[in-house]
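re: ur question from yesterday

yeah so i grabbed the chain u mentioned. its 222 aa long if i counted rite. heres the sequnce exactly as i have it in my notes:
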Amino acid sequence: MQCVFLAAGRGTRLRPLTDTTPKPLLEINKKPILAHSFEQLPDEIDQVILVVGWLGDKIRSYFGDNFLGREIVYVEHKEMLGTGYALSLCRDVLSDKFIVMMGDNLYCRRDIERCLAHDLCLSVKEVENPQDFAVVEVDAGGALKAVCEKPHNSASNLVNTALYVLDKRFFDYPLVRIASGEYGLPQTIVAMASDCRVGVERAEAWTEINTAEDLKGAEQHL
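ran it thru and got these structure tokens back, copy pasting raw so excuse formatting
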């Protein structure tokens, strides 16, 4: 099975750290963020696709063509047109069922394995401040219903952790453009969910890293 890590962003909120180091290579407890995520991958993942952009040569240099026994394929994301667009660049190198995760978030193996039990899945986490995240709405059957970016008022406190289990049916759907002008991955998955059931799993452990304070919090989390 394959895993896609989206690792092309500039990490502007972490400047000046990210002026010379790509965000996925920022260290937590003396190890890059992305290396921590590699260690959490289930055994059935034998190939990793790294979508790189900003300072991508440094990511290539660190991980090479094989890391922790897994083959690595690189895909260049030169135009920053959103996560949906980034995944669309991987179409020709993906076979069937695959995982997608952010290269600058921390995940845990148990959560990934539970998501893999579904044909299609999106991972969520319960938080106290959902207005700061992409809020996920779930239908009565526990499947994905909608995703709303940073709503002022929300009836749900479940937010998107950007961990997805997908297959190549995703590429049959037009990418959904969001308010920023980029193409959103979760929004495109919602369009897919109108035809295919997308399960929703609650994460035990997930850390989003956007600021220097998040880095310090991630050290404590680990």
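noticed a couple things. The domain at 2-221 is CATH 3.90.550.10 (Spore Coat Polysaccharide Biosynthesis Protein SpsA; Chain A). also The longest strand covers residues 158-166.
anyway ttyl
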